[in-house]
Amidohydrolase
Amino acid sequence: MVGRKAIYDFVDEAAEWAIGLRRGFHRWPELSNQEYRTSIRIKQELENLGIETEKVLDTGLVAIMNKNSNRKVVALRADMDALPIQEEVILPYASERKGVMHACGHDVHMAVLLGTAKVLNEIKEDINGTVKFIFQPAEETTGGAERMIKKGCLENPKVDYILGLHVKPDLPAGTLGLKYGKVHASSDMFRIVVKGKGSHGAYPELGIDAIVAASQIVTNAQSIVSRNVSPLNPAVITFGSFHGGNAMNIVSDRVILEGTLRALDKNTRDYLKTRLREVAKNTAKAAGASADVEFSKGYSALTNDNFIVDMIKELGMCEAGIDKIVELKEPSMGVEDFSFFLEKIPGAFFFLGSGYKGRENEGIHSGKFEVDEKCIKPGILIETLSVLKLLE
């Protein structure tokens, strides 16, 4: 059995290699469902290591190590897509694509996973099971996780546990962020079409003002979270778009409202939709108008398996050389489609501190977002040790 010192040496070597890969990914970012060049590069690097790969969806990849072990299977996932954001940081490996940037750290996620694959490949004869490496497109938009699952990425062989990570710039590199239980909210999008009756603005009594009715819907909907949901149960209703009217002296006959709902459990998620529909329809009716309400499903809430979080915490404290472990107390009302994996199998999603120590770091989804690449080595080490522990 390979010793821990040998693993640490392999991690040191893999981290330097992975930093170079990360810079290549950062230089050529690709938007959701367009990760063709990225996918080809990942496939080449894995095949150079002698690791079998399989295409899933147009740009997704699954690589398998020790496929026929007939023992437990652990999967690791990295997302691949960039964002339509112009990079503002001057770097020697800055994005060469105008208006496209890895502003959410997915370049780091891919590099860490490839580095982990390199380390595990060095000791594969001593690995007591099978490892799957899942490279997933479209986390930022259409939810590549759910589509990859439907295509069978968790089968043949069936995955027993899964791990995922995300950079966290408000924690310095070398820090690990862990959250027990609920980590991210679910999301649903809504579209409300309010229909009234047009008239000249000088004679409003001859019409039914859709703008007034829609404004009342927006106002009344605020009482759903403040008065219908427990203050101990986080929920969000956000109206992000309000479109109506064509002229300053015409009573509008139509308004379109669009927004998002966020919740941490299924019952609250369902209730928000039911109650928003009731409020919208009845408020419009009271104004003499009508409201049609449609919902589009987003991502599920992300809930960690606490046993696996405990395992990562112990490894981080005792073996992985993590500078500090921060236990996150509050869930995020943001979303992450790793949740679809955790609906199927036990696993954990954790956070890799990626900020520079001693300075204020810009958050993700910003053109000023920057990563301290010192985070890559501890990311590779904690993923490697977690895989070995889960396969014991």
